[in-house]
Specification:
Helix content: 10-25%
Number of helices: 6
CATH superfamily: TULIP domain
Largest sheet: 8 strands, antiparallel
Order of helices and strands: EHEEEEEEEHHHHH
Bound molecules: 2-acetamido-2-deoxy-beta-D-glucopyranose
Length: 251
Amino acid sequence: MFSSSLIVAFLCIGATYAALPLPSYVKPCARSDPGFEACALDRARETIKHIVNGDRKYKIPVIDPLEITEIIVDNKGPEQAGIDIKIRNAKFYGLKDTIIESIKLNYDEKSMHMDVRLPRIELNGEYEVKGRVLLLPITGKGPLNFTLENAPAQFDTDWIVENIDGSEFMSLTNSRLHHVEPTRVHYDLKNLFNGDKLLGPEMNAVLNENWRESFKELAPPVIQALSTVIAGTVNSIAHAVEYKNVFPLNV
Ligand SMILES: *[C@@H]1O[C@H](CO)[C@@H](O)[C@H](O)[C@H]1NC(C)=O
């Protein structure tokens, strides 16, 4: 459905490499430990509580609320299919409550899989929309509220090791948040159809009644934005700390 291009303008997650120690709230696990994965799960849960507040030293923005200046989907497909959406000054609330259910980490293959659950994510922002959703024409501009309840999700990523001036750093590649499957989604797009008192509430009712289908059409750019942010956050630490200190053989 989407032959779209996505632009996510995110706060400067910089690729500046530095050889800092790990932040005090990130305790490494020893690769030689037979319980390495269990340790990683434990430490990731601990880390998330701290990281949501941001950390200037490691160029990590505040994650709850997470602010994204602009999320854009340009529909490059035919006029009658798809949708153009812009969300400005997007604010996500609730990432601090993310529950990490499990982690699979393969150090040799440089890949990781995570099962997570997002108990409640509320996205507020200013939307601009034009196109079709659920085959119905939609246009409008105004305040937006998307709220997801209790969404299991999966995060997969690979990483590469880069040599920067003789030191090794890890960089996430191929990161994707997927299978985000909320048990309910609420939509509130104010001022649809130029504030039409009849059509606006009607469209909101249709979106809410068919929340699962609308989610499939409207959520991909939002999920991709979140994915970029997760990878960016991990990279902020990974680019500040030498690889050998992220995954030490022994601690
Ligand atoms: C957004 O929608 C949710 C679910 O309907 C509601 O609980 C919340 O109060 C709304 N937020 C705002 C800012 O209106």
